[in-house]
Task: inverse folding
């Protein structure tokens, strides 16, 4: 217990120090900062970045304003960090499995950019996803129905989520949203390409900046097909050719994602994205969050290779089935 | 009779030796070729590249052989190949040679490729899929098609591997026209090929990438592993630029293709 509070306490000191030194990007704010240039004249986005945040995608119902004050934001971060690190009961199985003093420390101890926004969504201005179209509602219901028909998650590996299967973490995207840990990115730029190495499940995003067209529509993948261009200070990445397997917030496979990366300070990129999916929402919607400079390197995340948890989950379920069948047989033979 | 044949035997052994030696060292490069430069004055190795040989089956010199999946017939047969290894065969220690044999016999259950595990080094470089080099002064990224494997080559921030990994920890430097990559920190679980050639976590690979024309790289590697081999050994091969206008690394997220193999026996039987 003492050890736990010590770790959290020192983490908070780092966190607070970082926050005070940080500038706060606000959408629409005039940006005096001009990024350094790569040798071929592009804004230089290279380095290691983290988009770790406690800010939710949608504005909590009880919050009516778009921005917190700095004091409110700091208080929320402090409370969130303490709550997160205390969320398991010492000595319990969840505590052994997910000891948040040993694992998943990114949010409550790592570098975290202060974000005064009350939600990542800034358009619509109410911070909520726009209403779903009838088609979107129908698809969402059909997906829920299909999930029910599949049976329990432990019935077959394919019933498990993509993240449990180490195929794609729910929030690794694109769009790139943070989860509780591994929210790190390395950006490198070579002539004609920007590459973003997403730490989570080692996801390399190779973005061609050479004016090429997207792949033909029938060639689809979980992370879609990106193409990029520069608009002044901003890298704009358009991604299409998604599948219907990810369904980001209920999206369709024809979702069009536009991401905008703008370096707004030496130690910060403003990351904004717009989802345009008329088959799902009545209007496009946009969100933004800062990417804060962090220290590298990014280490290999061989998620699938070490996925003992998934194997044991399924093996455990079959062992339970076997025991239940044996118990039932014993019961019927003793009658 | 014996005496009569002896000179010709010696001659043919000599010819074979010369063939093997010259055959494994890539020819065709001009030693004076100077690659175009990046803005920081280094040979520009950016591009989409791919090896073209049979080493993904077996890096040793090997004849054609039947495959192990009957349904695949000739399409699943092992194609013959001269291999990449200088001298043709790997210098295994006796126990390791036994292990290699076992690996080959059980390759359908043991080969990490079948399970979509990260392919390791040097194997990633001669799998039959393209990889892309994205070159910057501080980091050279190699992004492989298979399993979306990534290597970061640290050019100026050399350090020891912080922990073991599948793709290892790569420190790079330029020696004139050549990119030299020194990789250690392997977890010892990867293989060299589908034939069960393997190594331990003591693997140390030093690779040399040298452009020999606008569209060719000479790839050479020296491989050491004191737990498995009696001495260091060398491989070499050309790597070719993928010249298609639309050459690119497409998504080959292979995990879902290996799930039934890995977890299929844990599926709940239907109707229960």
Result:
């Amino acid at each position: 217990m003492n050890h736990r509070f010590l770790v959290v306490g020192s983490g908070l000191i780092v966190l607070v120090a970082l926050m005070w030194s940080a500038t706060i990007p606000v959408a629409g704010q005039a940006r005096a900062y001009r990024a350094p240039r790569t040798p071929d004249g592009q804004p230089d986005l290279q380095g290691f970045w983290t988009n770790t945040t406690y800010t939710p995608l949608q504005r909590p119902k009880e919050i009516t304003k778009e921005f917190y004050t700095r004091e409110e934001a700091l208080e929320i971060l402090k409370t969130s960090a303490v709550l997160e690190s205390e969320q398991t009961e010492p000595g319990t199985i969840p505590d052994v499995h997910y000891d948040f003093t040993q694992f998943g420390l990114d949010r409550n101890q790592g570098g975290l950019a202060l974000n005064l926004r009350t939600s990542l969504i800034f358009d619509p201005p109410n911070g909520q996803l726009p209403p779903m179209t009838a088609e979107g509602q129908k698809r969402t219901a059909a997906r829920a129905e299909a999930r029910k028909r599949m049976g329990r998650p432990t019935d077959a590996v394919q019933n498990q989520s993509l993240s449990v299967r180490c195929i794609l973490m729910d929030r690794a995207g694109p769009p790139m949203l943070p989860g509780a840990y591994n929210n790190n990115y390395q950006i490198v730029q070579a002539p004609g390409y920007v590459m973003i190495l997403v730490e989570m499940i080692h996801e390399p995003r190779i973005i061609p900046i050479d004016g090429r067209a997207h792949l033909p529509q029938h060639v689809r993948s979980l992370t879609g097909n990106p193409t990029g261009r520069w608009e002044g200070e901003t890298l704009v990445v358009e991604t299409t050719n998604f599948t219907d397997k990810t369904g980001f917030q209920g999206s369709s496979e024809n979702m069009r994602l536009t991401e905008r990366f703008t370096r707004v300070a030496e130690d910060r990129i403003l990351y904004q994205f717009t989802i345009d999916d008329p088959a799902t929402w009545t209007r496009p919607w946009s969100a933004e969050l800062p990417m804060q400079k962090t220290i590298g390197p990014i280490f290999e995340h061989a998620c699938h290779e070490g996925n003992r948890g998934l194997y044991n989950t399924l093996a455990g379920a079959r062992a339970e089935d076997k025991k239940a069948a044996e118990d039932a047989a014993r019961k019927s033979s003793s009658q | 009779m014996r005496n009569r044949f002896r000179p010709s035997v010696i001659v043919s052994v000599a010819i074979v030796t010369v063939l093997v030696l010259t055959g494994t060292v890539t020819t065709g490069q001009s030693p004076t070729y100077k690659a175009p430069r990046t803005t920081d004055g280094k040979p520009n190795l950016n591009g989409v590249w791919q090896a073209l040989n049979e080493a993904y089956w077996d890096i040793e010199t090997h004849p054609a052989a039947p495959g192990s999946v009957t349904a695949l017939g000739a399409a699943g047969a092992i194609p013959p190949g001269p291999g990449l290894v200088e001298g043709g065969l790997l210098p295994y220690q006796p126990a390791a040679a036994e292990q290699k044999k076992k690996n080959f016999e059980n390759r359908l259950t043991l080969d990490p490729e079948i399970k979509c595990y990260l392919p390791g080094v040097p194997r990633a470089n001669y799998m039959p899929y393209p990889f892309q080099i994205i070159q910057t002064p501080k980091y050279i990224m190699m992004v492989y098609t298979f399993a979306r494997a990534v290597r970061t080559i640290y050019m100026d921030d050399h350090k020891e591997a912080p922990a073991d990994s599948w793709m290892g920890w790569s420190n790079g430097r330029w020696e004139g026209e050549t990119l030299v990559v020194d990789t250690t920190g392997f977890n010892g679980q990867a293989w060299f090929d589908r034939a069960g050639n393997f190594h331990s976590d003591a693997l140390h690979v030093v690779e040399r990438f040298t452009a020999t024309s606008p569209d060719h790289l000479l790839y050479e590697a020296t491989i050491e592993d004191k737990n498995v081999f009696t001495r260091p050994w060398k491989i070499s091969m050309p790597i070719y630029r993928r010249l298609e206008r639309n050459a690119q690394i497409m998504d080959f997220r292979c995990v879902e293709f290996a799930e039934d193999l890995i977890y299929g026996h844990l599926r709940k039987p239907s109707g229960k």
Q: What stands out?
A: Chain A has a mean pLDDT of 86.
